[in-house]
Amino acid sequence: MASQILFDPHLDWPVVYALGAALVLILALSIWRGLAGWPYRLLAGLVLLLALVNPSLQSEEREPLSDIVLLVVDESASQRIADRPAQTAEALAALEAEVAALGMETRVARVGDAEDNAGTLLMTELQRLMAEEPRARIAGALLITDGRLHDPELVPDMPAPIHALITGYDTDWDRRLVVETAPAFGIIGEELLLTIRLEDQGAVPAGLEGRSQIVIAIDGGAPQTYVVPVGESLELPLTLEHAGQNVIQFTVPEAEGELTTRNNAAVVQINGIRDRLRVLLVSGEPHPGQRTWRNLLKSDPSVDLVHFTILRPPDRQDGVPVGELSLIAFPTRELFMERVDDFDLIIFDRYQRRGILPMVYIDNIRRYVEDGGALLVAAGPDFAGASSLYRTPLADILPGRPTARVIEQPYLPTISALGARHPVTTGLETEHTPLPESEAPWGRWLRQIELSQQGGQTVMEGADGAPLLMLDRVGEGRVALLASDHAWLWDRGYEGGGPQLELLRRLAHWMMGEPDLEEEALVAEVDGQTITITRRTLADDVGSVIVTTPEGEELEVMLEETAPGAFSAQIEGEAQGLYRLVEGDRERVIALGPAAPREFEVTIAGSETLEPLLDASGGRSVRLEEGLPDLRRVSEGRSANGRGWLGLTTREAYVTTDVTVTPFIRAWIFLILAAGLMLAGWLREGRQ
Q1: Residue 255 has pLDDT above 60, yes or no
Q2: 645: which of 138, 149, 420, 630 fits an S-S bond (Cβ 3.0–4.6 Å)?
Q3: For residue 389, with 0-12 CB atoms within 10 Å meaning exposed, 13-18 middle and 19 or more buried, which class applies?
Q4: Pairing between strand 641-642 and 645-649?
Q5: What are phi and psi of 437, to 5 degrees?
């Protein structure tokens, strides 16, 4: 129980002060006039003033409250390496027991990896924990951490000391791979530079410093091993071979005694772009569809188009030499022999043999395709005749053989069963809005060259189910055969038109190796911690995907068909780092989180960052490898640490359970005392 005297004046304090001043004046006047009863007058005035301020005795029943110790446990990624989890768990159990033995309570908070690669927000969590408890009860804070925090500027204003218990060992060492610079884009065929560095941290054993191996693999290909110096920035020249994402993986082999391998690897994803797409378009004769091809290719500013049109009608025989039929000489040898490999795509639009291109030139085009080029043949009626391109060395690489029949009747182009799964034609119906009164997705075509399939894949069919669009891979290159010259009807809006530009755009980009249009591909996309795996294929089913996590754990992921030709699944990646995906002979490496997580920039435990914060609060840091310190109670203002011990401030907080207020003296007693004193003063002065 605790007691105190309270004053609850009947009048405002300024009035009481004024009456006190009046009493002083009266006493001064009495003393000046020599009145013998002034002491009685003084006592009477004081009694009346005391009655006005109304003194009371307040008694409180108090229940003491235990002190609270805030215990923040660092469980970030850097705290999950080596035996730090065991160190942390052992220290936490021992501290909770010691705090309980001191009669205090603990409030435990655990800190993981912050979002957006923010690292370990230890002080932020301490602030949150402190805000949930009464400040008057907080006896101190204990941090179990490796000392690598990323918000030291947010240290809270603690009324008690902050102590840190540091995990790890003095003998720890680690080797880290750092990607200093890496471009997001690169031009195919042109050299670019990446800058990397290997750095050692901690107590590096003798014989392991100086140089190290590094393994480099591009797009999951055969790895190449090099020996490089440690501690120096290295510039690596690289030439991109294809468009789309080029994945370059760097790996440093694990060294003996190294703390972790989580920062020994890095993945750099560089988007390969073509500086200019070089397309050669050879039109056999003027026709309505010719402008469609030209408009498509010229609409793309990244395309360099070389276009030749042969204006001499095929039925005209006037004896004029071929070399004299154009305003400028047709550089056939330069284009088809010397510089044919400079083109990314060659298009023959209704071309027929006329003696302009000798067979050796056409045979060179076949070789160009087999070595990685792309050839598109848009066939007209001439393809079915004796002067057909099929009757050249190109017959060896074309997927269809003309039957000599030209179908002259309206028909509706349709997507084949295989085409519904192929990226060139899948979902093509959604690219066009049909006429309201029409049940067909697009308009009809009026002519088709009948083909018999001899290879490749038929993705569109025409009259009587005959192949209309055929695709094939030949050697390293690609070939497409469109068995009609009436695609332009869609562009002109005939019977509502159709997605002609989209079809030709997809077709041209597939032939030039656009990764998004590959029919057989394993794709992985990252959104936060979610990895979306997509396997594109023309097969009816696919196998499971084996996912290897950064910790080396293997997960088997089953895929489900989510769209024609696309099988997908989603997984949640718990750890940041490199994930390797394997399905059959296809492999993909993807990085979850940043290329260089903050948690693994410095993995050696230490208290350098914490020391200024601890000193300001009166606390200190202790390494757990030296043994767990004792905890002691200390009075507020006393030193909170010493050799082998850490102090927690005794707060002596309490809660009031009952309050009793009793008047100090009854009012009638004040009146009697005041009256008696005034009477005594009057009598004393009456005898004077």
Answers
A1: yes
A2: 630
A3: buried
A4: antiparallel
A5: -85, 0
CA–CA distance, 532 with 529 (Å, rounded to integer) = 10
Q: Which residue has the tokens 């050839």?
A: 375
Task: Give me 577's structure tokens.
Answer: 């780092």
- Distance between CA atoms of 214 and 687, rounded to whole angstroms? 117
Cα–Cα distance, 440 to 446 (Å, whole number): 15
Q: Strand ranges (DSSP E) for 75-218?
A: 105-111, 138-145, 162-166, 173-181, 185-187, 191-202, 211-218
Contact 581, 546 (CB under 8 A): yes
Query: 354 with 387: CB under 8 angstroms?
Result: yes
* Distance (Å, whole) CA 544 – CA 582: 9
Residue 109 and residue 72 in contact, taking contact as beta carbons nearer than 8 Å: yes
C-alpha torsion angle, residues 284, 289, 290, 291 (rounded to 10)? 170
For the stretch 177-224, pLDDT in tens is 999 898 888 888 888 999 999 999 999 998 888 889 999 988 767 888
CA dist 193 and 234 (Å) reads 10
Nearest to 583 by CA among 621, 548, 612, 629: 548
Burial class (CB in 10 A: 0-12, 13-18, 19+), 283: buried
**Cα 220 vs. chain centroid, distance in angstroms?**
22
Q: Are 119 and 598 in contact (CB under 8 A)?
A: yes
Q: Would you state the pLDDT for residue 65?
A: 87
d(CA 596, CA 450): 58
Q: Which residues contact 278 (CB under 8 A, 6 or more apart)?
A: 303, 304, 306, 342, 343, 344, 345
- Say if CB 616 and CB 583 are below 8 A apart: no
The separation between CA 86 and the C-alpha centre of its own chain, rounded to angstroms, equals 30
